[in-house]
Write a structure and sequence with these properties.
There is one protein chain. With about 260 residues, the chain is α/β, with parallel strands linked by helices. It contains nine helices and eleven strands. The strands form two sheets. A nine-stranded mixed beta sheet has the order 5-4-6-7-3-8-9-10-11. A hairpin with a 2-residue loop joins strand 10 and strand 11. Helix 6 packs parallel to helix 8. The radius of gyration is 18 Å and the shape is globular. It starts with 19 loop residues before the first strand and ends in a 10-residue tail after the last strand. The N terminus and C terminus are likely disordered.
């Protein structure tokens, strides 16, 4: 599903200072003191199977229900497959997709339009992709963006210097367009770094880490907010449960009878 390229770009403006972009996940919004500061670019990072895509789509779905158009850029799997997988969740409102309030777009289609179908980008290609992504956000009037995954894109950017430049420019221009963004980052299980290339986490306004912890032979999904510019927040680790009705957070140590930090 894509935007009509002939449509006139919608006027955009930065989010008001101090405003919040609620995720719709009650526990996460509470620990962020009301939600993600509007206009922030957040690295949503973790290993395979930790719930990154589910959290990201719930974030977009909640925004669309409240009048904020959401845009999902599918990089590592087809957009239609993501939609099909999300239909298993009660929180996912298919009518938002049908009404074009929640857009799922495959990155290869955008790369083809930009003439960027290649295994490795040049510095000029980096700039062209930043412009293409931001222009698309403006064209459709998106207030929320998910890129799943940013890691797959950065493999084509290659060097750390260029990755830092690419991420800095993309984050700044999306914020200027009034868009709050989640960049999904893939890291191996047990990795101590928060990003694949070691520079994305320094550039991002926020870092939310999803992981797994073995508790009495049962693998629990976990979440903790490492940083979030523009708001005080808890740094405690929480267990998350991917229920049909959305993600639920509980303090990690509650089940063991200990007091959470």
């Amino acid at each position: 599903m894509g935007a009509n390229p002939k449509e006139e770009k919608k006027a955009v403006s930065p989010a008001p200072k101090g405003s919040r972009c609620q995720t719709g996940i009650e526990g996460l919004d509470k620990l962020l003191n009301g939600g993600i500061p509007s206009g922030n670019s957040v690295l949503l990072t973790g290993a395979v199977g930790t719930g990154k895509t589910t959290l990201a789509v719930e974030f977009l779905n909640f925004g669309a229900l409240n009048g904020e158009l959401g845009l999902y850029i599918a990089v590592t799997e087809h957009a239609q497959k993501v939609i099909d997988n999300m239909r298993t969740y009660e929180f996912f409102d298919q009518s938002l997709v049908e009404g074009k309030k929640l857009l799922f777009i495959d990155l290869p289609a955008l790369l083809e339009k930009l003439g960027l179908e290649k295994p490795e980008f040049t510095r000029e290609d980096d700039s062209a992709l930043v412009k293409g992504l931001v222009d698309l956000v403006k064209e459709v009037g998106a207030k929320r963006l998910v890129v799943d995954s940013i890691t797959a894109i950065l493999f084509q950017v290659k060097t750390k210097e260029r990755i830092r430049d690419f991420m800095t420019k993309l984050a700044r221009r999306l914020s200027e367009a009034g868009c709050t963004s989640l960049f999904i980052s893939e890291i191996p299980p047990g990795e101590t770094h928060y990003s694949s290339f070691g520079v994305e986490d320094a550039v991002a306004d926020g870092i939310i880490v999803l992981g797994n912890v073995d508790q009495r032979g049962y693998l629990l999904r976990t979440l903790h907010v490492v940083k979030m510019r523009g708001t005080p927040h808890s740094r405690s680790k929480f267990v998350i449960d991917l229920t049909p009705y959305g993600i639920i957070l509980v303090p990690l140590l509650r089940g063991s009878g200990s007091t959470p930090a």
